[in-house]
Specification:
The protein is of the alpha/beta class and 203 residues long. The chain is built from 6 helices and 15 strands. Strand 14 and strand 15 form a beta hairpin. The termini are far apart. The mean pLDDT is 91.
């Protein structure tokens, strides 16, 4: 049964090569011209999703299954391609406003629903979850250094630096600099009323 599922998946990936023909040509040209960032993006997805294909078929699989990756692909290749290659649309609720030249390779966006990325710079191998806001405050944007992870519902705003290897926990709001190798978490939720009486119980 498992072998049959694997066979069907491989057949579907093979068939998907046809509608992705122009995407593949654009990818190959960019990789040959030295665009290593998109190759690193693919490798990061391949590692996190435990995909067993080579670079070529991993790209086809990602374009077929993960609309978040399509946003990254069009961002790397040039946003006008999203209109010419409209039959594989990007995720409409994911907005990447930071130019590709200021985003390091290996970007991974898990889900991406409701996520806005408007950083001044994003380092290599960063991870960004769903419903995240990385944006400006007083017209100044944050910097995410290498290997930074911003988990679901987190907010990172303003002229700050989140230094390398740091984790911004789910639901955290960050408006000040974060030193390297740090883990940021929001305040714990608490029960403030129970049976009509005021209480303060941390959850």
């Amino acid at each position: 049964m498992l072998q049959m599922k694997l066979l069907i998946k491989n057949i579907l990936v093979g068939i998907a090569v046809i509608p992705l023909f122009f995407h593949i040509i654009i990818l190959c040209v960019n990789v040959l011209c030295g665009n290593v960032e998109i190759r690193d993006d693919i490798s990061h997805y391949k590692s996190r999703k435990s995909i067993k294909y080579n670079l070529f078929f991993t790209f086809v699989y990602l374009m077929l299954i993960f609309p978040e990756f399509r946003n990254i692909f069009y961002m790397r290749m040039g946003r006008f391609w999203r209109y010419l290659l409209f039959w594989f649309p990007p995720l409409s609720t994911l907005h990447i406003w930071t130019p590709s030249a200021r985003i390091g390779g290996g970007l991974y966006i898990g889900h991406g629903w409701g996520t806005v990325i408007n950083a001044y710079r994003v380092g290599r191998n960063c991870v960004i979850g769903q419903n995240c806001t990385i944006g400006s405050r007083n017209f100044k944007e944050p910097v995410l250094e290498d290997n930074v992870k911003v988990w679901a519902h987190a907010v990172v705003l303003g002229d700050i630096v989140v230094e390398e290897n740091s984790n911004i926990g789910a639901g955290a709001v960050v408006v000040k600099n974060v030193p390297k190798n740090s883990v940021v978490v929001p305040a714990k939720s608490s029960i403030i009323r129970m049976n009509g009486e005021k209480v303060n119980i941390l959850l």
